[in-house]
Amino acid sequence: MSRPGRDDSPDRLYTLTGGRSRSGPGNPFDLVTLVVAEGAPVPGMQSEHAAILRLTERPTAVVEIAAELKLPVSITRILLSDLLAAGRVSARHPRQAAVPDPDILEQVLVGLRNL
Amino acid sequence: MDSATSETRTAAETRTPLGASAENGLKIVVVGGFGAGKTTMVRSVSEIRPLNTEETMTQAGESVDDVSGVRGKTATTVAFDFGRITLDSRNVLYLFGAPGQERFWFLWDRLFSGTLGAVVLVDTRRIDDSWYAIDRLEKHGTPFIVACNDFGGPTFTPQQIREALDLEPDVPLVNCDARSRESSKIVLITLVEHIRSRYADPARASRQELV
I need a labelling partner for B141 at 20 to 30 A (CA). Which of A4, A48, B7, B181 fits? Predict the structure, then answer.
Protein backbone atom coordinates (compact mmCIF):
# COMPACT_ATOMS: atom_id res chain seq x y z
CA MET A 1 0.00 0.00 0.00
CA SER A 2 1.31 3.45 -0.80
CA ARG A 3 2.15 5.82 2.00
CA PRO A 4 0.50 9.12 1.22
CA GLY A 5 2.63 11.10 3.62
CA ARG A 6 5.81 10.11 1.90
CA ASP A 7 4.96 9.72 -1.77
CA ASP A 8 2.12 12.09 -2.51
CA SER A 9 2.57 15.59 -3.73
CA PRO A 10 3.34 18.02 -0.91
CA ASP A 11 0.38 19.98 -2.26
CA ARG A 12 -1.95 17.38 -0.85
CA LEU A 13 -0.52 17.84 2.65
CA TYR A 14 -0.73 21.59 2.18
CA THR A 15 -4.41 21.34 1.30
CA LEU A 16 -5.18 19.08 4.26
CA THR A 17 -4.14 21.74 6.71
CA GLY A 18 -5.54 24.73 4.84
CA GLY A 19 -2.06 25.94 4.01
CA ARG A 20 -0.62 25.78 7.49
CA SER A 21 2.59 23.88 7.58
CA ARG A 22 3.95 24.33 11.07
CA SER A 23 3.02 22.54 14.20
CA GLY A 24 5.18 25.06 15.98
CA PRO A 25 6.18 25.50 19.59
CA GLY A 26 2.63 26.38 20.64
CA ASN A 27 1.31 23.00 19.57
CA PRO A 28 0.67 21.00 22.72
CA PHE A 29 0.57 17.53 21.20
CA ASP A 30 3.36 15.19 22.20
CA LEU A 31 3.87 11.93 20.26
CA VAL A 32 2.29 10.08 23.17
CA THR A 33 -0.45 12.54 24.10
CA LEU A 34 -3.59 10.43 24.31
CA VAL A 35 -6.48 11.86 22.32
CA VAL A 36 -10.13 11.08 23.03
CA ALA A 37 -13.07 12.03 20.80
CA GLU A 38 -15.76 14.11 22.45
CA GLY A 39 -18.37 12.96 19.94
CA ALA A 40 -19.05 11.24 16.64
CA PRO A 41 -18.14 12.77 13.26
CA VAL A 42 -20.76 15.09 11.80
CA PRO A 43 -21.79 15.38 8.13
CA GLY A 44 -19.70 17.78 6.11
CA MET A 45 -16.66 17.44 8.32
CA GLN A 46 -13.22 17.23 6.65
CA SER A 47 -12.62 13.53 6.07
CA GLU A 48 -9.35 13.45 8.04
CA HIS A 49 -11.09 15.08 11.02
CA ALA A 50 -13.86 12.49 10.79
CA ALA A 51 -11.28 9.70 10.58
CA ILE A 52 -9.57 10.99 13.73
CA LEU A 53 -12.84 11.06 15.65
CA ARG A 54 -13.55 7.47 14.63
CA LEU A 55 -10.04 6.41 15.68
CA THR A 56 -10.23 8.09 19.06
CA GLU A 57 -13.43 6.67 20.50
CA ARG A 58 -10.99 5.17 22.99
CA PRO A 59 -7.78 6.97 24.06
CA THR A 60 -5.30 6.88 21.15
CA ALA A 61 -1.78 8.31 21.03
CA VAL A 62 -0.87 11.00 18.50
CA VAL A 63 1.71 8.69 16.94
CA GLU A 64 -0.87 5.93 16.45
CA ILE A 65 -3.23 8.39 14.78
CA ALA A 66 -0.44 9.50 12.43
CA ALA A 67 0.39 5.89 11.58
CA GLU A 68 -3.23 4.93 10.97
CA LEU A 69 -3.89 7.99 8.79
CA LYS A 70 -0.51 7.51 7.05
CA LEU A 71 0.32 11.17 7.57
CA PRO A 72 3.48 12.78 8.93
CA VAL A 73 3.35 13.52 12.63
CA SER A 74 3.53 17.30 12.09
CA ILE A 75 0.45 17.30 9.84
CA THR A 76 -1.42 15.11 12.28
CA ARG A 77 -0.63 17.58 15.08
CA ILE A 78 -2.15 20.43 13.07
CA LEU A 79 -5.33 18.45 12.39
CA LEU A 80 -5.55 17.61 16.10
CA SER A 81 -5.13 21.27 17.09
CA ASP A 82 -8.15 22.13 14.93
CA LEU A 83 -10.24 19.45 16.61
CA LEU A 84 -9.07 20.48 20.07
CA ALA A 85 -9.88 24.14 19.39
CA ALA A 86 -13.35 23.11 18.21
CA GLY A 87 -13.88 21.06 21.38
CA ARG A 88 -14.26 17.85 19.39
CA VAL A 89 -11.42 16.02 21.12
CA SER A 90 -9.78 16.19 24.50
CA ALA A 91 -6.10 15.57 25.14
CA ARG A 92 -4.41 13.69 27.97
CA HIS A 93 -0.86 14.96 27.94
CA PRO A 94 2.04 12.92 29.30
CA ARG A 95 3.11 13.83 32.81
CA GLN A 96 6.64 14.78 31.93
CA ALA A 97 9.13 16.38 34.22
CA ALA A 98 12.83 17.12 34.03
CA VAL A 99 13.32 14.29 36.47
CA PRO A 100 10.89 11.37 36.18
CA ASP A 101 8.56 10.80 39.09
CA PRO A 102 9.97 7.84 41.12
CA ASP A 103 6.43 6.50 41.53
CA ILE A 104 5.97 6.43 37.76
CA LEU A 105 9.31 4.62 37.31
CA GLU A 106 8.21 2.08 39.89
CA GLN A 107 4.93 1.56 38.02
CA VAL A 108 6.85 1.10 34.77
CA LEU A 109 9.03 -1.55 36.41
CA VAL A 110 6.05 -3.39 37.83
CA GLY A 111 4.32 -3.27 34.46
CA LEU A 112 7.38 -4.59 32.63
CA ARG A 113 7.98 -7.40 35.13
CA ASN A 114 4.35 -8.48 34.67
CA LEU A 115 4.72 -8.73 30.89
CA MET B 1 16.03 -10.75 10.80
CA ASP B 2 12.41 -11.56 11.35
CA SER B 3 10.81 -12.23 14.64
CA ALA B 4 9.71 -15.59 15.88
CA THR B 5 6.59 -13.90 17.19
CA SER B 6 5.39 -12.54 13.85
CA GLU B 7 2.84 -15.32 13.38
CA THR B 8 1.05 -14.48 16.56
CA ARG B 9 1.01 -10.80 15.69
CA THR B 10 -0.55 -11.18 12.25
CA ALA B 11 -3.71 -12.43 13.90
CA ALA B 12 -4.05 -9.03 15.51
CA GLU B 13 -4.07 -6.92 12.36
CA THR B 14 -7.10 -5.03 13.60
CA ARG B 15 -6.56 -2.21 16.04
CA THR B 16 -6.39 -2.99 19.72
CA PRO B 17 -7.71 0.03 21.56
CA LEU B 18 -6.44 1.16 24.94
CA GLY B 19 -8.61 1.04 28.01
CA ALA B 20 -10.79 4.10 28.61
CA SER B 21 -8.82 5.06 31.73
CA ALA B 22 -5.43 5.29 29.98
CA GLU B 23 -4.08 8.76 30.67
CA ASN B 24 -0.28 8.85 30.76
CA GLY B 25 1.88 8.01 27.75
CA LEU B 26 5.56 7.20 28.34
CA LYS B 27 8.39 6.85 25.83
CA ILE B 28 11.42 4.64 25.50
CA VAL B 29 13.54 4.77 22.35
CA VAL B 30 15.49 1.87 20.87
CA VAL B 31 18.30 3.35 18.78
CA GLY B 32 20.45 1.31 16.47
CA GLY B 33 22.04 1.08 13.07
CA PHE B 34 20.36 -0.47 10.05
CA GLY B 35 19.66 -4.13 10.70
CA ALA B 36 20.62 -4.03 14.37
CA GLY B 37 17.22 -5.48 15.30
CA LYS B 38 15.27 -2.42 16.52
CA THR B 39 12.00 -3.44 14.87
CA THR B 40 12.48 -7.02 16.04
CA MET B 41 12.88 -5.90 19.64
CA VAL B 42 9.85 -3.62 19.45
CA ARG B 43 7.81 -6.46 17.97
CA SER B 44 8.95 -8.91 20.62
CA VAL B 45 7.44 -6.93 23.48
CA SER B 46 4.68 -4.91 21.83
CA GLU B 47 1.02 -5.73 22.39
CA ILE B 48 0.20 -4.36 18.93
CA ARG B 49 1.67 -5.14 15.55
CA PRO B 50 4.42 -2.51 15.23
CA LEU B 51 3.26 0.53 13.30
CA ASN B 52 5.33 2.82 11.15
CA THR B 53 5.15 6.56 10.75
CA GLU B 54 7.38 9.41 9.78
CA GLU B 55 8.28 12.99 10.39
CA THR B 56 9.56 15.50 7.88
CA MET B 57 11.45 18.70 8.29
CA THR B 58 13.69 20.88 6.20
CA GLN B 59 17.37 21.16 6.94
CA ALA B 60 17.14 24.93 7.18
CA GLY B 61 16.28 25.16 10.85
CA GLU B 62 14.69 23.35 13.72
CA SER B 63 11.39 25.19 13.70
CA VAL B 64 11.06 25.48 9.95
CA ASP B 65 8.70 22.86 8.71
CA ASP B 66 7.35 24.23 5.48
CA VAL B 67 5.67 21.31 3.79
CA SER B 68 4.51 23.48 0.90
CA GLY B 69 8.07 24.19 -0.12
CA VAL B 70 9.45 20.71 0.36
CA ARG B 71 10.11 20.20 -3.33
CA GLY B 72 12.61 23.01 -3.56
CA LYS B 73 14.45 22.32 -0.33
CA THR B 74 16.44 19.59 1.27
CA ALA B 75 13.81 17.82 3.27
CA THR B 76 14.68 15.30 5.93
CA THR B 77 12.16 12.53 6.29
CA VAL B 78 12.73 10.07 9.04
CA ALA B 79 10.61 6.97 9.32
CA PHE B 80 10.38 5.18 12.60
CA ASP B 81 8.33 2.36 13.97
CA PHE B 82 6.80 1.84 17.34
CA GLY B 83 4.96 -0.58 19.55
CA ARG B 84 2.95 -0.30 22.72
CA ILE B 85 2.89 -1.89 26.15
CA THR B 86 -0.03 -1.24 28.48
CA LEU B 87 1.61 -1.09 31.92
CA ASP B 88 -1.52 -0.68 34.01
CA SER B 89 -4.93 0.96 33.73
CA ARG B 90 -3.41 4.46 33.54
CA ASN B 91 0.12 4.15 32.11
CA VAL B 92 1.00 3.18 28.55
CA LEU B 93 4.57 2.74 27.39
CA TYR B 94 5.40 3.45 23.76
CA LEU B 95 8.55 1.88 22.42
CA PHE B 96 10.11 3.59 19.41
CA GLY B 97 12.62 2.04 17.04
CA ALA B 98 14.71 4.88 15.68
CA PRO B 99 17.56 4.91 13.20
CA GLY B 100 20.80 6.12 14.70
CA GLN B 101 22.14 7.95 11.69
CA GLU B 102 23.08 11.57 11.77
CA ARG B 103 20.05 13.14 10.07
CA PHE B 104 17.74 11.53 12.57
CA TRP B 105 19.09 13.66 15.41
CA PHE B 106 17.64 16.82 13.88
CA LEU B 107 14.30 15.44 14.95
CA TRP B 108 15.20 14.06 18.36
CA ASP B 109 13.92 17.02 20.36
CA ARG B 110 10.68 17.25 18.49
CA LEU B 111 9.90 13.56 18.65
CA PHE B 112 11.52 12.30 21.80
CA SER B 113 11.73 15.13 24.30
CA GLY B 114 10.66 13.79 27.66
CA THR B 115 11.66 10.24 26.81
CA LEU B 116 12.45 8.13 29.88
CA GLY B 117 15.58 6.71 28.32
CA ALA B 118 17.07 4.80 25.42
CA VAL B 119 18.39 1.38 24.54
CA VAL B 120 21.33 1.48 22.15
CA LEU B 121 21.04 -1.78 20.25
CA VAL B 122 24.41 -2.91 18.94
CA ASP B 123 25.25 -5.41 16.25
CA THR B 124 28.70 -6.53 17.39
CA ARG B 125 29.69 -7.12 13.76
CA ARG B 126 29.25 -3.37 13.23
CA ILE B 127 30.10 -1.78 16.53
CA ASP B 128 31.09 1.50 14.90
CA ASP B 129 27.47 2.10 13.84
CA SER B 130 26.62 2.88 17.46
CA TRP B 131 29.27 5.47 18.13
CA TYR B 132 27.30 8.44 16.97
CA ALA B 133 24.11 7.50 18.82
CA ILE B 134 25.98 7.13 22.10
CA ASP B 135 27.67 10.48 21.61
CA ARG B 136 24.33 12.21 20.97
CA LEU B 137 22.57 10.57 23.91
CA GLU B 138 25.38 11.68 26.22
CA LYS B 139 25.09 15.24 24.88
CA HIS B 140 21.32 15.21 25.37
CA GLY B 141 21.69 13.87 28.93
CA THR B 142 19.33 11.01 28.06
CA PRO B 143 19.85 7.94 30.28
CA PHE B 144 20.71 4.89 28.19
CA ILE B 145 22.01 1.36 28.31
CA VAL B 146 23.79 -0.64 25.61
CA ALA B 147 22.36 -3.99 24.52
CA CYS B 148 24.34 -6.25 22.18
CA ASN B 149 22.02 -8.21 19.95
CA ASP B 150 23.27 -11.75 19.45
CA PHE B 151 23.63 -12.48 15.75
CA GLY B 152 25.86 -15.47 16.34
CA GLY B 153 28.87 -13.53 15.14
CA PRO B 154 32.19 -13.22 16.90
CA THR B 155 31.88 -12.75 20.63
CA PHE B 156 33.66 -10.00 22.42
CA THR B 157 34.29 -9.59 26.09
CA PRO B 158 32.30 -6.82 27.77
CA GLN B 159 35.58 -5.02 28.30
CA GLN B 160 36.34 -5.08 24.56
CA ILE B 161 32.92 -3.64 23.77
CA ARG B 162 33.21 -0.97 26.44
CA GLU B 163 36.52 0.09 25.03
CA ALA B 164 35.29 0.05 21.43
CA LEU B 165 32.36 2.28 22.39
CA ASP B 166 34.26 4.35 24.94
CA LEU B 167 31.45 3.64 27.42
CA GLU B 168 31.33 5.27 30.83
CA PRO B 169 31.67 2.59 33.54
CA ASP B 170 28.22 3.33 34.96
CA VAL B 171 26.40 2.66 31.67
CA PRO B 172 24.96 -0.88 31.84
CA LEU B 173 26.00 -3.25 29.06
CA VAL B 174 23.90 -6.38 28.43
CA ASN B 175 23.64 -9.14 25.86
CA CYS B 176 20.27 -9.92 24.37
CA ASP B 177 18.35 -11.76 21.70
CA ALA B 178 15.94 -9.21 20.25
CA ARG B 179 13.73 -12.01 18.89
CA SER B 180 12.99 -13.17 22.42
CA ARG B 181 10.25 -11.48 24.39
CA GLU B 182 11.83 -12.47 27.69
CA SER B 183 15.27 -11.22 26.67
CA SER B 184 13.87 -7.91 25.35
CA LYS B 185 11.85 -7.51 28.52
CA ILE B 186 15.01 -7.89 30.61
CA VAL B 187 16.69 -5.19 28.48
CA LEU B 188 13.84 -2.77 29.21
CA ILE B 189 13.85 -3.59 32.93
CA THR B 190 17.62 -3.02 33.02
CA LEU B 191 17.12 0.38 31.40
CA VAL B 192 14.38 1.49 33.81
CA GLU B 193 16.39 0.31 36.82
CA HIS B 194 19.33 2.31 35.50
CA ILE B 195 17.13 5.40 35.08
CA ARG B 196 15.82 4.97 38.60
CA SER B 197 19.25 4.67 40.15
CA ARG B 198 20.57 7.57 38.11
CA TYR B 199 17.87 9.92 39.29
CA ALA B 200 18.07 8.60 42.84
CA ASP B 201 21.65 9.89 42.91
CA PRO B 202 21.47 13.53 41.79
CA ALA B 203 25.24 14.04 41.92
CA ARG B 204 25.72 11.31 39.36
CA ALA B 205 22.90 12.58 37.14
CA SER B 206 24.22 16.12 37.00
CA ARG B 207 27.73 14.95 36.27
CA GLN B 208 26.47 12.97 33.28
CA GLU B 209 24.50 15.92 31.96
CA LEU B 210 27.61 18.04 31.92
CA VAL B 211 29.48 15.62 29.66
Answer: B181
